[in-house]
Design brief:
This protein has a two-stranded antiparallel sheet. Helices cover about 65% and strands about 0% of the residues. Helix 5 (about 135-160) packs parallel to helix 6 and helix 9 packs across helix 10. The relative contact order is 0.04. It is mainly alpha-helical.
């Protein structure tokens, strides 16, 4: 019996020693091992390293073994257990591990400091894919900032545009927030401006509608709050009033014109000065045309009269206009001279077609010219005969003298 007890104790000591020297994680009794060539080639580890809280000294290992429960259970993995680094990340993320939650000690494997990156990430690897990494936390924070910047930027741009304000993208925050804010601000501002332009058009049309009915402007409260909408309403109102006034001015001007041609002055009363002036302007225009008609009558009459004869008009003003036209006809002078010269030259009476309407005048002055022609002709004949008689007398005297000499 004593020998059996001793044998049982020795067997137990042997099993405990073997358990301490090897486990499912393939670490030695110190809690570490050398990285295999295969794992080094994959970039999973380098050299000798520890796992699961392994210590450098055997004493601490034995102490840990004796004082704490073993952590090298069958589910425990190390970096050399994975074929690729993507497998490491997939396993890490599936377990929900992070810098503060790493029961398998994958973070810091082969490194002195935990950094939230399991095993050793290949050079240039996007560590934002790794759950709980600083890069992932920064990426998540940037996405939140972008979402916030986009929402706030759009709202600010829409507000500024809808109120007709100038663009203002001055904002502070992270790069992601500022960039997203500016892009979304522009989108919101464009939409707001389109909306505001539509409101301005409505305000302008509302002003025109009021101005087409009355002269007194009454700006609605919803347009008084915004200076640009207020201005749009006023411009529409003034445009309609101006249009309506121009139409009424035209009516008064036409009325004045017709009265002026009829020589009836009916100045309008109790209306705007602009309408009174329009009537007077039209009346003056009508009067001028009336005057021109009488001047023209007098001018035409000058072609048919040898001397001015006043027309039988009741209105003295018309007679004056008629006489003014008669005296303004300077072409009569040319007709008189042409007719007189034709007669004076002794030519046969022929009146040019352009002077047919002045036949009375033309014939009269032709006859004057021809009469003078006849007189000059008689004078020339007498002069010729007188000269011939003088020659004959002189010849007779000379002949008498010669005869006398011969007799003597």
């Amino acid at each position: 019996m004593k020998k059996f007890t001793i044998l049982l104790v020795l067997l137990s000591s042997f099993l405990i020693q073997n358990f301490a020297e090897a486990h499912s994680g393939r670490t030695d009794s110190s809690g570490g091992h050398n990285c295999s060539e295969k794992s080094q080639a994959k970039g999973l580890c380098t050299g000798y390293h520890y796992h699961n809280g392994g210590e450098e000294t055997s004493s601490s290992s034995s102490s840990s073994t004796s004082n704490t429960p073993a952590t090298t259970q069958s589910w425990d993995k190390d970096c050399s257990d994975f074929s690729t680094y993507e497998d490491v990340v997939e396993y890490w993320n599936s377990k929900g591990y992070s810098k503060t939650n790493d029961p398998e000690k994958l973070d810091g494997w082969g490194n002195a400091v935990d950094d939230g990156i399991p095993c050793e990430a290949p050079s240039g690897y996007d560590t934002s894919k790794i759950n709980g990494s600083d890069a992932q936390l920064a990426k998540v924070a940037a996405e939140k900032d972008r979402a916030k910047g986009g929402s706030e930027g759009y709202a600010a741009g829409l507000t500024d545009g809808s109120n007709g304000n100038e663009e203002n993208v001055n904002v502070t925050g992270s790069d992601a927030y500022v960039a997203s804010y500016k892009v979304s601000y522009q989108k919101g501002y464009k939409e707001g401006i389109l909306k505001f332009e539509s409101e301005k058009k409505k305000a302008n049309e509302a002003g025109q509608k009021l101005g087409s009915k009355q002269d007194k402007i009454i700006i609605p409260e919803n347009y008084q709050e915004n200076e640009q909408l207020k201005t749009a309403f006023e411009q529409g109102f003034n445009k309609a009033v101006s249009f309506r006034e121009e139409a009424e001015k035209k009516e008064y001007e036409n009325k004045g014109y017709n009265d002026g041609k009829k020589d009836i002055n009916n100045d309008p009363k109790d209306i705007k000065d602009i309408y009174i002036k329009a009537y007077q302007s039209g009346f003056e225009k009508g009067q001028n045309e009336l005057k021109e008609s009488y001047i023209k009558k007098g001018y035409e009459a000058a072609y048919t009269m040898l001397e001015y004869k006043a027309p039988e008009y009741e209105n003295e003003k018309y007679i004056e206009w008629y006489k003014e036209g008669f005296e303004s006809n300077k072409e009569i002078k040319s007709i008189q001279e042409s007719a007189y010269n034709q007669g004076l030259s002794g030519e046969k009476y022929t009146i040019p077609k352009s002077y047919l309407k002045s036949e009375v005048i033309y014939k009269h002055f032709y006859e004057q010219g021809y009469e003078n022609y006849e007189e000059e002709k008689k004078e020339d004949t007498a002069t010729t005969l007188g000269g011939l008689g003088f020659i004959i007398v002189g010849w007779l005297v000379r002949r008498f003298y010669v005869a006398k000499k011969m007799v003597g």
